[in-house]
## 1
Amino acid sequence: MSHFSEVNYVDLPAVFALSARYTDDPHPDKVNLTVGAYRNEAGKPWVLPVVKKAESMLAADDTLNKEYLSMGGLQSFTDAATRLVLGENSKVINEDRAVALQTLSGTGALHVAFQFIAQFYPGCKDIYVSNPSWGNHKLMIDRLPGVNFKQYTYYDPKTMGFDLEGMCRDLEQAHDGSVVVLHACAHNPTGIDPTKEQWLKIAEVCKKKNHFPILDLAYLGYASGNFDQDAASIRLFADRGFEFIVCQSFAKIMGLYCERIGCMIFVGQTAEIAHKCLSQMKIIIRSIYSNPPAHGARIASMCLNNRDMKAEWEDCVKEMHAG
């Protein structure tokens, strides 16, 4: 008898099942509305011209090899990704209170963040997620011991808009020191974001209740076409003295879907606290996959650090935003 005879079959998440049906469907005019990804007029993933340029440059660089990256990943990438999110003149960066790790896209960043919360967060282990939200939030939280999946109101079906009153009510009623997952911009799946004034109110409630924010950032630049504008919610929390985590994906915004390139940023009250937490996060990574992939990180690093390539990438993001 098998040791695993009691294991039950589980269906694929609906989004992947539908994508498989799309691939198998021979209809010439089919449209894929499943995965939240940018597609060109032919319905195909767009390999950004600046990404192709970066890959050609990497292929021609004989100094590169296939050595492992460190547990924390490619520092030229994580440093640049942190500046992109928090700002070139960020106080928390200048005070060495912002630390970062390369992760397996945004999903990997969230997984490491939730693992860290489960192991080390001393406050309430209730993790609040918007209703509705990206389905993987619940899947990851439910599989962690010692934490509780909770929801806060977000969408109002009557107005087909954001329900600020309902969200603030739920966060007020949550236990002090709860963990709150927030979509920094381009809320998934509604596409409805709080205004600047509403973000101020959300931050005010979180501060009053001593909640710990985790900001999910999968679509920087998609919401407005402007990186600074889309990162404004995150910088608001930094300016108000929060400790928080940002989970950033480069899948959509650079078209690096299969490269699995992400960045997790932790902002602590002091540099010492930030670096202690960073050390523990590296051990979590060591226990899962040890080292992140180099190729996509090198592409992202070039697009972030080379001024001309960054400008070309920004134009690509604006095109995706407009499309």
## 2
Amino acid sequence: MLRSLVGSEMCIRDSFRTAPQNSFCVQTPQCNVYSLVFALGGCEVMTKGDTSKLHACGTRPALVNHTTLHTDFRKTDDAKIIFDLTRNALLKNNFDTAIFLSNAYGPSLVAQDTCRIKWFQKVLNPINILDHTTPNIVDEVYPDFYALAPVIRADLYRKAMFASGGVSLEREWVDIKEEGLEDEYAQGICTLLQDNLKFISSCYINLNTPQAVKDVLIGPNVVFCCGPSPRDVRNVVVMSHRHSKTTTADGVSVASAAVCVFSLFGNLQGESKLNEMAKLATQKIGAEVLYVTNTHGTSTDDLRKAVFDECPNYGTNLYMINSNFRSVSGKIDPSKIHLPFAML
């Protein structure tokens, strides 16, 4: 499910269509590997060093997204070529920091990774998932279902109790795009980030203008805000809503997933905020599965208490490197990182 929805062609098309104007694509001459670079003009990447004081590790950062290598070229030098091409393109456009995710400590990377990012999932509508005629959806969400059917079936109902039981959201949330209030809420979100991230985060993108908030966070995503007014936002959750369609002999099977891009809660902690996000995904979006990383103030322990299951095959390393392939930060606790992860 994570592979088919988060990394789907639809996701890539959305990213190309909604990327900031100064973003660009890098690809090899054979077009078998490419990178989409989100240029974050006017934004700084703030990190805390050994002195616990925030400093800008990159005044011209870029998110390197969707780095993809065709399977026929895995044992060639194309992977290193795309890194070199991306590096040259970043230098040409005066970017000093590249932020990206990679499953390996290479190719030929001298840089130390910043942390290990883990993905977790919560199935919001398990019965519907099991009704899908697409085998890989069930296998990816419940890989041991057929071997442990009696045990997992009981677990399914326990996890999905709130989805069918009508449990209400604890706060009044506004879908700002559905209401057409992006401009009104952009300033409130900007103020919330400026007032909170410098105290609770060890690594974040300093979105210091409403336009930067609209470019990086709002973009193609679904944005929920909670607070007394658009100018006084107390909580914000940014999600990416993804669909996967498969045509079978019985018709078209559609799976729906919500991916948490970014979240910041001023008055909810731990398990409570994860439960609120799950309710948003199922009640406001109608998603069947919610995917969350162990970032944005959320620890692995919080996710397990909220009955989220780790996706062990999708863990990845976060890198923040300069033009010399050197890390611009030391090791950072993933829960202290506030980056928009659907854009990485």
## 3
Amino acid sequence: MAVVASVHTHACVLVVLAALLCKAPRANGAPMTSSLNEARLEFTVRDMDSCLVALKDAPVKRLLPRPYWLHFPKCGTSFGLTLHNYGCVDRQSSTIRERKFRNDEAECVCGMRHRWDPTIAKIIDLQRYKYCSDEVRLSGGWFKNHIPPPRESYNEYKGQLVGLFRDPRKRLLSGYNHGKHSFGLPFYLKQSLRELPDLRAYVEFPPIASCMTKMILGYLCATVVSISAAELEEAKRRVREDFAFVGLQEYWNESVCLFHRMFGGTLLDNAFQNSRSHVGKVAPGQVISGNRAGNVTYVPDTWWRKIKPEDDPFDWAIYQEARKKFFQNMIQYGLAPTGVTLDDMIANDYS
């Protein structure tokens, strides 16, 4: 992958980036349908009660000892609650409803750094370590926000990767409404980002596309990098073969239930809560000011329909792989209606 060098003027920057990224080649066979049919599959597990029934007589699960959460921006921060519950044991309920699972207010502190790090131990009440599983060490998005596994040591994380994937059209809309989210964007492009006037300009700003693809390949979400069709195929292969768990934000409750069906752990009600909801906080048309990306005019959630798969072809291809794997696992682990095939699911899901 060739990283684009810094240039002196914003106009030149955008010309160079557009040449590299805006017209990225499609992968062979990458689905590019623009169908916006919003039919949604109905599974038997739709809430905590139905999930508990499905888990009751489930066979023995396999342990996921070192889950690395590849946390794509705008793709399910609340899923951290599910992982928090997986790494913290011997509790029958949880009072955590917001992002407290990530900070000093957490009722237990577990992860790659737990117990053996004396620096952390001096700061955090050791009493909260008593809930940490001796078998599970959380990493990735748990402590590293939106940082992918290091490219040079990627093989160490095979079979332990956990990801919540999202329709890239909806991810882009959410990123725009969240202050033109651009994690990893080079500093020299910040001013260009601030000057973007609307959703369409944000979607077409070259570093914004291919976020999930880039992170799977070991780059930050808004890194300026040209991705080849061959590299996209490698990213798709990693989704199929290297991810221990793939969930979909569009099927949130089903994803939570599938995780516990596959790997065990205590299912708590907070896993079904949205810890980052904006409902009632911001109204469409409201101008959000004071953020580092300049003013943003908040747009309705339904505006994802204005974004096409062709606007983010690589992430669209990645999302199709994630959907397929998710539906396959729903069938394999008995959480799909009897007799339903993968082809049925693909044909009837909204995407």
## 4
Amino acid sequence: YFRNGSRVEPPARQAQRKSFFDAAAAAAVRNAVNSTGSECLRIFVAGAVTHIGKTTVCLSLLAALREAGFSAAELGYIKPATQCEAPDLLKQWCSDEGIEYVSGESAPLVFYSGFTRSFLAGEQGTSQQWLDRIAAKIQEMSASRRVLIVDGVGFPAVGSIVGVDNADVARVARAPVLLVCKSGVGGAVDSFSLNSTYFLSKGVPVLGALFNMGEPEGFYSWDKCASTLKQWFDQQGSRRERFYGVVPIASELKGLRERISETNKSQLRSLAFLNAEHFSKYVDLPSLLFDAACDRWCRGSAAKLPNIAATAAATKTAAAAADPPAKRPRTGENAGSSISNGGFVPKSRQEVASQAKSLGAVGGG
């Protein structure tokens, strides 16, 4: 409900929130965010693989920030490029909290059925135009907020066929990356090393990693893995990437993604709170937020968006020297979409998706 024009939590919800953080932890989170001064702190949440819990991590970060005392108006969530438009727990939670949520149909770029082939045919504008659209929306949301959580799609290279992969989006968002990897030991480190290298190769800073879906017991139990993973990160010398924790599987939350549409609103709110509370027990949130706040992309005048046109032109020139144009996807050309007033109008989704379906397409992309 509202009091004097401001959103006020119902007493029951306020009481529920008190068990989430102690005063010292809440203060540490606030201090980390406030260390950016007046700048918006942006974090790009990327997954090493699909369905590793990126959106769950985003929900938990936002819930922790709410618990630490930030208002709904000070927070925002955006998934700039997406393949999935199904309802999720985060959408319901953001709606209940009053936090702006941009994803699904409202996302700047949707990889719907037939999109990639239409793009390569020159009917969907250029990579640069899509990145400009994404950058504009992120800049708009950042202007009035303290924290903006940017959600990735799939694994790091998703979108590379159209020149708009996760690293490209993180770069125009000026958002350092938090990698979410599967818990383990050797495989977990290998996955982190491979995926962090992808971002670093494109000049995108990586804060570090948290490891999700830890086993509750056994040789690969979450606590044993956490000890080994921390040991590895501590031995990396001059590398800046940090270890933020291992989150064990919570039996109450297992399979929730598939049950969203059949779970009532009250149950979803309880599950969202449980999810965030569980996450916060195992992740070093103050350190994560402080590291993001210290990143050059989240501080002062350094947070200007990059010159996308210059970057695209340089990439196109370098590629032209290496290969004949006919062998490359036309990510920098516009053969079929119309241009008006500096913008672009891609071929309609209805037309492209309908044609793709008639040819047997069953998914996005």
